[in-house]
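User: Hey, quick favor. My workstation is busy. Could you predict this chain's structure for me?
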Amino acid sequence: MELYNFSEHVGIFRIDQSICDDLIPILLDMRDNLPSDGRSNVNGWQKNYLQDIPEFGQLKDQISNQFDLYIAKLHEMYYVREGNNEPKWAISIDNLFANVNGPGSYHVLHNHAGCNYSGVVYLQTPNQGGPCGNFYLRSPFYSPWMGSMQAETTKDYQASFESEKGMGLIFPAYMMHSVGPNMTNDDRIAVSFNLTVYFNQQLAHFLEESRE
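Assistant: No problem, here it is.
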């Protein structure tokens, strides 16, 4: 008997913390002056479609570079290269959105439609008074034996990542995820993103030439 296991891939990266420091006052000012878009954020503030605002340009570049590395690593694992053909892809940031979560606020379990991949970068993660909320990813593959398992074994069906300033995550957009409540006395601040990768040779070459 042979068992074949499927898996998914979560990218973990870090950005320059000076980018975090530059964006924190901008987002707090937006929080104080613009209404929240709501969605998955409960009792916190959320604002969508920030990708065209110039102040977020450095962060966009960091995310694009990290996502490019993520896709390249997946290709190393799965892509069968024919001759000297290099894999080509184009990346689109479909939505860059901010979340400011004050004490007690959190994100309900959800996923992201209309894109291939999603992710988050933490800009501020306070630690006074308690945890500021872990990021939880639910396993996309359930065992038919889960209902009869011992309670302590079910932890394998959920991955937990402790939020940390400058840390980023990338994961397939269909995966269900949530963020625990902020139990500190300060704001947890993060920027999330939705990405699409196009495995189209002509489009990839066009975008590559347009950047030169």
